[in-house]
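User: Here's a chain of 230 residues. Predict its fold as tokens.
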Amino acid sequence: MYGADGALVVAHGRKGEGPGEFRMPKLAGVLGGDSLVVYDSQLRRVSLVHAESGFVRSYLVGMEGGGFPIAIGITGEGGLAVGGGMFFSSASGFPTGAVRPNSRYVILGPDGLVQGDLGDVPAAEMFARTSGSAFSASALPFGRVTAAAIGPDRLWLGTGDAWEINAYALDATLMRIVRFDRPQAPVTDVLRNAELAERIEGADNDKRRGRFGTGSVICHRPSEFRHTRS
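Assistant: Prediction complete.
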């Protein structure tokens, strides 16, 4: 932790998996003016760290049905909002082509228990491929993307289906809907070709450039890409 002058005041934690240790801390928030709430994405664990005494306690973040919990942000109570992660299993069959899976969004309290559950929400549109036992998925150009942000007592979420943002209380009660009266903008061939040219130019090798040829993610069934671009 650093002081207002930028000088190091104190350091807590080290690399590891034990109490007060971290593998990949991805998110931190201030709690009560004297503590930090830290989320470790590799350990899927939230730790409370006091500015002076260091590690206080921690809890694991789990998602029913599998999936990778992606942290959205820290609540004003020291809880954690997670969502946006997707889970694919060979047991149920990997999807192929243009897909839009669901993702569960939940709000955890400072004790690690589920405080609010928004249930399944449409995730990002993707293009899925399988090759033997290998599976990969990448975002669709101009596809719809769900975005979320957390405030002290609200979770804001939009699915990209319309010019609309929903505000939820920390118990997942819908409190407000913000709408804008704007038409969707169709994705034209000019926009599609410009995106293709930009991706080919930015590719770092010939193999990746070849993926953007005929039948690739960006060229596949362009009539399905007629969504609003944000």
